[in-house]
Amino acid sequence: MRILLVGEYSRFHNSLKEGLIKLGHDVVIIGDNDFKDYPLDISVFAKVFKKNYWLNKIRQGFYRVFKIDLAQLETAYRFFKNRKKLVGFDVVQLINEYPLQSTIFLEKKMLGYIFKNNKKVYLSSCGDDFVSVKYMLEGQFRYSVLTPCEANPELGHCPYTLRYATKPFQELHDFVYKNTIAVIPGDLDYAIPLENHPRAKKLIPYPINIDKLAYSPMQIENKIIIFHGINEANYFKKGNGYFEDALKIIENKYSKNVEIITARSVPYATYIDLYNKSHIVLDQVFTYDQGYNALEAMSKGKVVFTGAEKEFMEHYILSEKVCINALPDVDNLIEKLSFLIENPNEILALGKRARQFIEKEHNYRTVAARYLSAWDEE
User: Fold this and answer.
1) DSSP-assigned letter for residue 235
2) Which of 164, 169, 212, 343 is the most buried (most CB within 10 A)?
3) Which of 372, 171, 183, 285 is closest to 191 using CA atoms?
4) CA-to-CA distance for 289 and 312, rounded, in angstroms?
5) Residue 302 neighbours by CB distance under 10 Å
């Protein structure tokens, strides 16, 4: 079967592709490289206007005057330049309602071309979209990525998340839902808002390539190493400030026992190299479930501070922790970090359970098979 995966920003589609290939299928990924630089078969990255210093300056000036981003136009140009490679697929999956990040008008044109020239098109609910943002705005989560925006709506991520609730993005949402067979949530942060939605399928966990992310039991020889990876663009969205405040106390309290590594907006490969030697990874706080960075760290047997709310524990029928539920509460984070530092055997046991959980629920081969089954139901 020929499969087209549209969009990539977390390694989700790359891992799914690897699982599908293992099962004998032909897979192509088209997307827009961000700073993480994930592999793509067809790239629509606007390298002319984003990589060239002077053209990027012209782009910024043009946007200030005309409110048009020339890079978004270049994305559409690169899409249609490759249009003949994007037809005749048996299945297409969009990573999100807005997978290529052009203007809304051009996004519809690109997606319309895909809808017209391929057989079955499905939508993944992964990342901000109209349904999940509307659910957040209605206050139905106990906390969410919009929680920091209540105090300061001008925080970097707030306008970008809130735009999904505007009329143009609702129209894009309606257009995508009208032309796709079903939507498949990738974790509980998207599955919960889609509960009882007539177009939603059951949650399929994100695939993790457990062969590439080899597991080796952790050893604590001297200091406990804590890794905090920061994407500056999502600093407040991920709750990095809570982690940084907690780490100041931890570093002072346990200076002889811990080493803290902080990385800011580095490429994916560099990020992996930096956290490989760590024991504890600080991921994010405003989430009920794990995103990709957390899952990959868990696959390597790290102890990860991330989303692990009661809904997560109940969904996977877990009696023991496989990661640490990170709350937007500095004192709570300090308490949980302190417990682990003072009980290093729990770090080793938790890291082992994390790997076992990934092998059971996120194995890229079995997850790929679940997608094949979901796509075959219609």
Assistant:
1) T
2) 164
3) 183
4) 6
5) 27
- Two tokens, residue 242: 């809570």
How far is C-alpha 101 from the geometric centre of its chain's CA atoms? Answer: 15
Paired residues of 183 in beta bridges: 123, 200
pLDDT tens per residue, range 352-367: 999 999 999 999 999 9
Spell out the alpha helix ranges (H) of 230-363.
240-253, 268-275, 292-299, 310-315, 330-342, 344-361
SS3 334: helix
CB atoms within 10 A of CB 349: 14
d(CA 322, CA 195): 25
Rounded Cα distance between 196 and 191, Å, is: 10
Which amino acid does the sequence have at 288? Y
Q: What are phi and psi of 324, to 5 degrees?
A: -105, 125
Q: Count the residues in the chain.
A: 378
Query: Number of H helices and number of E strands within the chain?
Result: 17, 11
> Which residue in 189, 287, 268 sits closest to 229, CA to CA?
268
DSSP string, 61-95: HHHHHH---HHHHHHHHHHHHTGGGGS--SEEEES
- Residue showing tokens 């974790």: 187
DSSP β-ladder status, 2-6 and 91-94: parallel
Q: Which helix (H) or strand (E) holds 3?
A: strand 2-6
* Strand-by-strand arrangement of the 324-325 sheet: 258-264, 224-230, 280-282, 303-306, 324-325
- Whether 299 contacts 208, CB under 8 Å: yes
The pLDDT > 70 percentage for the chain reads 99
Higher pLDDT, 175 or 154: 175
Percent of the chain past pLDDT 90, that is, above it, reads 87
Structure tokens at 182: 């079903």
Report the alpha-carbon distance of residue 155 to residue 235 in Å, rounded.
9
199 vs 124, 179, 191, 194, 245, CA distance in Å? 11, 11, 12, 9, 42
Sheet holding 120-125, edge to edge: 42-43, 26-31, 2-6, 91-94, 120-125, 183-185
| Angle between helix 330-342 and helix 344-361 axes, rounded to 10 deg | 110
